[in-house]
């Protein structure tokens, strides 16, 4: 029996009794060896208990300080009632908090560095958060604890659509509102709600700033200066907040109505410039394939997902897409056996060109329509699809054909197309088209010869007038991929050379400069896009084990880093291009 007892362990519940003795010692002032003075009231305490509960007291009582020698500590910035509550919590482990003293106790515990008390307060705080008090709590906790502040913002974000009507946005500081509206997991029905919230915040703060100086001293000549400054600041802050919105998710009605016509937006050049930028991005869907400003990134709760779309199908009829949220490749089954099919993307719709037939995927294929070309360089330009081919007769010429307008596709039973004629007849003999990109109203067409390293660059304006043929040596005849940033284009070669292409002072010249060399040697490239201030390139990177890796390169005003993305498997002989796409999540 004795052996059985000795081989077992037992828990002995002494905690409650010990704390009851602590309270008795405190109340009866037994064994007290230090005095804390708050608002001229003396609190006899025990050094060991204070030091165990507070890093502040531990430092004060264990160093060679006056307080340690005299065993008398005076506190300032705390009321006697709050300190009494803290002592009751330390000695008795009692729940002595109320709604009235909760944040005062937290502030005192923070000042005295009472880690255990603060941890308990945070738990109580999180449990007390509700839609009725969250904004008020944010105002009280913002200076106490950054983690708790972020928890409140997360709470508001998770209940944003339900809270937006009663949300007291005027209590949020500009950095807090930006942090809230920039959340990728913001819970909302439509991006228009974000615009409405931002405008409501700006209006309330603008009116408040306009009224306060007059109320203080309406005859003070400095009041008007203060008023103008406050108005300017509130509108400038509005511009910063609006930059957190997701451009592509704003409805046309909200963009051109609620936002563009708002008095505060119309009164400020920065706001107007931003609205023009968003409108330009809305009006040019072809830009979505080649570059993506940070504010165009989609939210997790939207019906769209950001992926890099590989513009070629596998022989199994699968489209490969890289989900940028977790950097993983995913196969999207489009249709059956379709070798060498080409994939296009326009306004969240996937179009597939195969065997002279065009079909679209929403996410299922609709009946295809015949098209006259399946070879050549296919590009989306504004709202139309163009094909560029070379015709070798007596002299080589570039043929440019407009296949159709996306706005009318599949509506009238057949596709409308027209040839735009040839450009550059007899001027690029022995060369072939390798890429096309648009810069503003100008198309840049890259041609390359088979035996030399010269690349011919043709540029054509929107009236289909040839401006020039520009023989330029790009160091190597290796394959190049192109991408754009705002109103300039870039060409990246497989040898790592990055070239910048800009329009000159007029449309009769272009400027080409070599900006960077990203790597040494040749690497097989498939495409490049600008996404969220990063240059993302896809290729067969044999020396890379992970899906992606970061290169220590940046280009001021264009990208701050380079991400190399390894294809999940080889496509064979084909060299697919890539495009940025915002695909419906039900595809993934």
Explain what this protein looks like in three dimensions.
Keywords: Kelch repeat, Repeat. This is BTB domain-containing protein. Pfam families: BACK (PF07707), BTB (PF00651). The protein is an alpha+beta fold. It has three domains: 116 residues, 2-Layer Sandwich (Potassium Channel Kv1.1, Chain A), CATH 3.30.710.10; 94 residues; 294 residues, Kelch-type beta propeller (Neuraminidase, 6 Propeller). Helix 12 runs parallel beside helix 14. The radius of gyration is 33 Å and the shape is elongated.
Assembly type of the chains comes to single chain
- How much is the average pLDDT? 77
User: Number of DSSP strands?
Assistant: 28
Number of domains: 3
CATH topology-level fold name of the largest domain: Neuraminidase
Widest beta sheet: strand line-up = 4-24-25-27-26
Structural class, from secondary structure content? alpha+beta
Low-confidence parts: 213-232
CATH H-tier superfamily of the largest domain: Kelch-type beta propeller
Strand content: 25-35%
Shape descriptor reads elongated
CATH architecture grouping of the largest domain: 6 Propeller
Compute the CA-based radius of gyration: 33 Å
Helix content: 25-40%
